[in-house]
Amino acid sequence: MRAFPGLESALVVGIGNPFRGDDAAGLQVVRHIARVNPPAVQTWESDGDVGTLLDLWSNRKFVVAVDAVSSGSPPGAVFRYEMTDESEELPAMLGSTVSSHGLGLGEAVKLGSALGRLPKRLIIYGIEGVNFDTGAPLSRSVADAAVTAASGILADLDDRVANQDA
Amino acid sequence: MPRLPRSRRKAGIMTTKTIKVNYLARVEGEGGLSVRIESGNVTGVSLNIFEPPRFFEAFLRERDFTEAPDITARICGICPIAYQMSAVHAMENACGVSVEGPIRALRRLIYCGEWIESHTLHIYMLHAPDFLGYSDVIQMAKDHPEEVSRGLELKKIGNQIVSVVGGREIHPINIRVGGFYRMPKRAELQPLRERLLWAREAATATVRWVSRFAFPDYEHDYEFVSLSHDHEYPFNEGRIRSSGGLDISVEEYEEFFEERQEPHSTALHSVMKDRGPYFVGPMARYSLNFARLSPLAQSAALDAGLDRSCRNPFRSIVVRAVETVQACDEAIGIIDDYQESDTPTVPVEPAAGRGCALTEAPRGSLYHRYDIDADGLIHSAKIVPPTSQNQATIERDLFGVVSRNIQLPTADLRYLCEQAVRNYDPCISCSTHFLKLQFEETT
Fold first, then answer.
1. B31-38/A121-128 β-pairing
2. Is B25 in the A-facing interface, judged by CB distances under 8 Å?
3. CB-closest option in A100, A102, A116 to B25
4. Which DSSP letter does residue B78 get?
5. Contact B68, B381 (CB under 8 A)
6. What does each C-alpha distance from B384 to B117, B124, B253, B388 come to in angstroms?
7. What is the DSSP code (8-state) at residue B28?
8. CB proximity A1 to B under 8 Å
9. Bridge partners of A67?
C-alpha cells in the first residue's frame, strides 16, 4: 500500500489506464507536472477507483483532477471546469469520462458532493481522446493536448500560490 | 414484432405496443434483453449479448503455460484473481503438482480480497439502489450517506488485500504457476488484520441492512452447482456438487456440462447435459455449503432470516453480504495462522497433457481447461465464465418474474426485470458491456 500524500500540499491526480490508448492522457499530464516538480505540489496516478479518489481528495484544500473524455469534440480538445459550492449541474464532459464499470471521475465528483467529501477547491481537466484501443499509444493530438493541459494546471498552481501570498 | 392473428387483426381489436429501454445500467458489459408478451402471456425472453467476441481461447494457443494466469486475468478488471486462480490450478493439474502450506493459504487470502471487493461493489453501488428506489448510488448516497460510506470503506479493504498479496489492485502481478513471485512478510499482513476487524463488523452490519429490504416474492427450484470442499467454504479446491445430486471431480466437468451457441448471443450458453439450465454463484455456494460457513457467517445469515438454503434470487444480495462476512472472517484467520516462508513457489515442470480447474469467482464457478505439450506450449484452451453458465437461468427467471407480475404497469415490470438481471451481478464482458431492455407487447 502506498501512503497517500500529505493533506497540506496541492494534489494533481491523473486518472487513466496506461494500456488503453488515449485513456492514458490524464497520466501523461501528471508525468509532465511531476517533471516540472513545482513546490508544495504532489502528483498521483490513479486507475479512477471512486473510493480511492474520495480518500485522496477529502479534506484537501486544492486538487486538480485530469482524465480523458469522449464527448464527441475534436480529438485533443482540452476542457477546464472548476467545482464551486453552487455547482449543481456538472458539465457534460464529466458524463463522458471513460470507465469500464460505469463509475468514473464524474461519479466520484457527484458521490463526493453527496457525501460532503470534496476538496475545498476542485478543478477538473478533461482531454478529448479519439483512440481507446488496447495497447495503442497516445494519439498525437492527445499527446499535444496533455502538454497544453499541463501548462494550464501549472498556471492554476501559480495562481493558487499568488492568491495565498495576497 | 409478432404477427397478429388474422381474424383479430381484421376485427381491429389488437393493439401492439413496443417498449424500449436504451440500456440497463449497473451491469458489467454490453448486451440486450427482450421480453415478448402476447395476449397477456410471456411468449419469449432472450438475453441478447452483443459484446464482441474476445477470442481469448484462441490467442492463448502457442503461448507458454506460465503466461495463462496473466493473459486470462485481462478478461476482467473486477475478478482477475478468479482467472488467475483457475489458470494456475489448471496448469498445476496438467503438470501433476499440488500446492500446500502458506502458498495455498495466501491464495485463499487474495481470493477473500476479491470477494470483499466485488461483493461490496455490487451490494452497495449496483444492487441496493434497486431495493430502495433510487436510480443509482449517487442518489442513494444523499439519503443514506452512512451506508454508502461504509460500503466504500469495506470495498477498499478488499482492494488492499489484493494489493498487498498481489502487488497491485487491478490485474495483480504477483501470482504465478506454482505460487507467487514474492511472499509477503507477516508484518505486511498485520495492518490488514486491524482493518479486517472493522470490516467484519461492517459486513455483519451490511447483512442486517440488506435483510430489511423488501424482496419480491419469487422462488424457483434451481439446480445449484458449486465447488464443495469437505472442510472449508469453497474457493479453489473441491468436488463439483449440485442440489440435484451431482457429485463429480473437476476432471469430469465436460462430461456433464456443455456450451451451446445461441443466435441472439455472442456468449455461449452453458447447460447441464440432458438437464438444462443450472445456477452458479453466491446462492448456489451458500445453499450447498452452509455447514462450511464460519459460525459468525452462519449466525449472521440465520439472524437475518435466511434459511440454510435460499431460492429467491432477489435475496442474493443478503447472501452476498453473508459471503462478505465469511471472507473477512476467513481472511483474519489466514493472517493469524500465516507462516512466513522463503519459498514463494514450488517448481512446475511442463508435462504433455490436459489440465483443468474450477474455482469460485465472486459471481460463480469459473472453469479453465488447457492442453499443453512437453515444452509447455498451450495447444488448446477452454474458459467457461460464471455469467455464461447463468445466462439460461437468468432468462428463465425473467420468464417467471414477468409471468407472475404481468398485471403490473409496464414501467414497474421493466424495473423488476432490470432488478432480476442484476440479481446475478452479471459480467457480460467476462462472458464474451450495458444491457438494452426491450418489451414487445401485444394485447
1. unpaired
2. yes
3. A102
4. S
5. yes
6. 22, 27, 11, 7
7. B
8. yes
9. A15, A126
How far CA B309 is from CA of A46, A103, B228, B389, in Å, comes to 41, 33, 15, 20
Number of domains in chain A: 1
- HEC string of A1-42 equals CCCCCCCCCEEEEEECCCCCHHHHHHHHHHHHHHHHCCCCEE
- Residue A20, in any domain of the structure: yes
Of A47, A103, A115, the CB nearest to B141: A115
Cα torsion at B47, B52, B55, B57 (round to 10°)? -20
For A115, name the nearest residue in chain B, comparing CA atoms only.
Answer: B145
Bridge partners of residue B383, in order along the sequence: B368
- Comparing C-alpha atoms, which of B106, B148, B142, B158 is closest to residue B127? B148
A114 to chain B, closest Cα gap in Å: 5
Domains of chain B from N-terminus onward: 6-52+390-442 (no CATH), 56-389 (1.10.645.10)
Report A:107-126 residues touching B (Cβ under 8 A): 107, 110-111, 114-116
- Which residues in chain A are closer than 8 Å to B159, comparing Cβ atoms? 49, 51-52
Is A2 within a domain?
no
pLDDT along chain A (166 residues), means of 10: 65 93 96 94 90 90 93 91 70 57 77 91 93 92 97 94 65
Q: Residues, chain A, total?
A: 166
Tell me if A15 sits within 8 A of A125, measured CB to CB: no
The CATH code of the domain that includes A98 is 3.40.50.1450
The pLDDT of residue B13: 38
Could you say which of A1, A101, A114 has the minimum Cβ distance to residue B138? A114
Which cell numbers hold the place of B87? 489458470
- The answer to whether residue A77 sits within a structural domain is yes
Listed residue (B256, B283, B282) closest to B270, CA to CA: B256
A30 contacts A65 by C-beta, under 8 angstroms = no
Residue A35 lies in a domain: yes
- pTM of the full predicted structure? 0.88
Full domain range(s) for residue A75: 10-165
CB count within 10 Å of CB B344 equals 17
Which residue from A47, A51, A100 is facing B155, i.e. has the nearest CB? A51
Question: What is the helix (H) or strand (E) element at residue A48, kind and residue range?
Answer: none
Tell me the per-residue pLDDT of B360-397, one tens digit each, with 9 for 90 and over: 999 999 999 999 999 999 999 999 988 888 988 988 99
B110-128 b/e with 16+ CB inside 10 Å = b? Answer: bbbbbbbbbbbbbbbbbbb
**Complex prediction ipTM:** 0.81
- Specify the 3-state DSSP secondary structure of B221: coil
Q: pLDDT, tens digit, for every residue of B201-241?
A: 999 999 999 999 999 999 999 999 999 999 999 999 999 99
Q: Which helix (H) or strand (E) holds B3?
A: none
Min distance A111 CA to chain B CA atoms (Å): 5
Cβ-based contacts under 8 A for chains A and B: 47
